[in-house]
Structures are given as structure tokens and as C-alpha cells.
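Problem 3 from the worked examples.
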Amino acid sequence: CGVTSPRMKGDQYTNSAKMGSLPVKKEGNSEWEDSEHRMGTSIMAVAYKGGVVMGADSRTTTGSYIANRVSDKLTMVHDQIYCCRSGSAADTQAVADIVRYYLDVHSAQMGEAPEVHTAATFFQRLCYENKNALSAGIIVGGWDKFNGGSVYCIPLGGAMVKQNFSIGGSGSTFIYGYCDANYKEDMTRDECHQFVRNALSLAMARDGSSGGIIRTAIIDENGVERFMLPGNELPRFYEN
């Protein structure tokens, strides 16, 4: 769409920590005062016949302190395209805001809604070209009239991979086996939604950096439908 990816500048806590020289910590400061907001996270997106289901937990941490227990990690970048964010809250919010602007310009130039692949490409370029300054793992999902529902994973470093389902964040390490064993192609809308809720509930039970509530979004040709599952109504399994 004729725009150039900006080189992003971080503050002393984001860039210097990644480049190897930490700022001097003042005496008496608590851990949560000096740590950046991070999304130690469980995020997930699954394509089904007709659309995509995206989901995430809601815990945001500053060090070991839970700064927000009901944060929204599902971010709209266009009418029927969302992203799940993990990593530094500031980094992922900034990248999502830039991509939202790019997609607005692109759709105005083209005279139609953008493809999910276009949104994922914008994320990929920003994350790759600024990989030394960013801590951002992104999952992009949505629906467009050309490809239907699709899911793209942009992990740390700025690669881009199209997948039937994608999981990310610190909680994802606990549910790879569950997802591999229970994912089915051509799931119905309700089956896919329950699969996402079950997987995230298992991740939140095992991962100390994930928790709170489960937010999900179902995206199809009719638009976006958002859901919230409270912590006391999460699916219960053996360890509970």
C-alpha cells in the first residue's frame, strides 16, 4: 500500500535489556516498579470451516506482580481481522496500532476490506525489521472474501507461518500435546469454540503467568462475536 515500516525506538528498559546492558536499579525499588508490563500469556487461534475462533487468557504481569487480571489480549486491526498478543504489552500494542493504521490506508486505496494475509504481512515486516528492539509474539486471524477464515503465526524474530491452528505465549508449552491429540479438521463452530476454551483452561491451570478469564472471538462472514468466560466457570479437569 505504499507505506514503509518504521524503525521503532524503545526506552532504556526495553532495548537495553534486550541488547545486554541493564539500567542501574535504584535502591529500595520494588520489582514491579522497574519491570515492564509483560503478557506471560496463553493465546490461541483455530480455523474452522467458515471462520476462525481466537482466544486468550487475561493476566498481565509486571515481574511477579499481576498488574491486570482482566486485560484484553484480542485486538482488532480491521473489521474482521484480529490479533492475539504475547510478549511486552507496550511493544505489541504499538505494533498493533501501526498495523491498524496501515490496513485503514490499504483498504481506502483498494476500495475493499483487506485480506488476512495482508495484515499478517504487515505484522511480519514490523516484527522482523525491528526484531532486536521488540518482544512480540503475534497470532493473526480473521475472515476475508478471498480465503475465508485463516490463521497466521508471527513468533519472536519475525517469521510468518500459515497454520490450521496456532498457540503461543508461556502457557502454550503445556498444551501442545492436548492440541495435537484433539484438533480435527472441519470442526463445527461450536466444536472449535469449545476446543479453544478447553485448551486455554488447561494452559491457565499449569502456567503461573496465565490466568484470569478467557476471552474469545468468533470471526466469520457475518462479522465478529465476542465471548467472556469467567474464572469460576472454566472447564475443569483432573488437576482441579
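Problem 4, a separate protein:
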Amino acid sequence: ISNAVALFEERQEVNQEIHAVKELLEEADDDKAMEQECLEEIQRLESNRDELEVKMVDAVLPKDTDDFGSDAVIEVRAGTGGDEASLFALELFEAYERIAKSLGFRTETLSRSESEIGGLKEGSLLVTGGASYPLPPPTDGGGGGGGEGPLLGPFGAFKFESGGHRVQRIPLTDKSRVHTSACSV
């Protein structure tokens, strides 16, 4: 919490500087150069304050320890849309499997129920492996980049994929209209 407090204090100092520069701007009268310099300084300080506020939120939010070492089970189920939804579910399932492998994780199909036309009614994929997916580095304005943050495990890499997934396209089963298909993950 000391980091969050230090960031808060730094933000308070920046707010005081913004107030002082605004007072200076009011006193500038007809000095256009001084006005321009004050406006640029206010803009720089406000940008700095915004970055500090983002860092403060990051500092106080709890970190999920499951992100780094836990395996994941990804379940894909065809929803509304009939045969076309089962084809979409198959594409999603295969995409998650490819993504997991490309991130260096191991995959194992736990269950798979296919539809009559070769789609997927439902399927479960176990994703295992050590932490290998880089968490984005903090936004410190210093350029950072390059995956300098901690490495995420399978759960951390895929936890935000849960929920409804939807696609609108001309179906493979009926080329005469646009169709909406849904799946749950």
C-alpha cells in the first residue's frame, strides 16, 4: 500500500503545480508567450496526473494469484442458430486450441460432441502448462513494452474469454441470407 500512498502524494503535488500554473496564467495579462507556455505546462501536468491515477488504480487492485499458475478448462457450447451455430462452435474450439498451443501451453480434449453436419454441439479443452503468456507491462510512459511484466498461466490468459460469443455471416448451410449464430464459452 505504500506504493499507492506515494503515488497519491505525487498526484497531490501535480495538482498543486497545476493550480499554481493556472494562477500564473491569470497574471499573464497580454503576454502571449507566457500564456502559451502556461497552457503547454498545464497540458503536460494534466497528462502526468492522468497517468498517476491509472498507476494508483493498478496499485490498489488485488492481484489474482490464479492468473499465474492455474490450468484452465475451456468449454464451448453451440447456442442459438441451429447447424450454423455448431459450425461456429467448432471454429471457436479449434481457434482456442491453436491459440493455447501458440502461447506454449499444452492442450487435451476432455470431451467432444459433434453435430450431424460435422460441427460441434459441445466440447471441453484442458489447457495446461507453466506461465508463458506475458502480462502487459505497466503503463509508466517510459516506452516499456516487450513483455516485461510477469508471465500468465493458462487461467490468466483465457479467463476473460468466458461468456457469449456471436457471429453474423452468410451461413455455409443457407447462402440466401445473413444468419446470427451464438455460442457460450
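Solution to problem 4. Helices lie at 2-27, 32-60, 66-69, 82-102, 154-158. The beta strands are 72-78, 106-114, 120-128, 133-134, 151-152, 164-169, 179-184.
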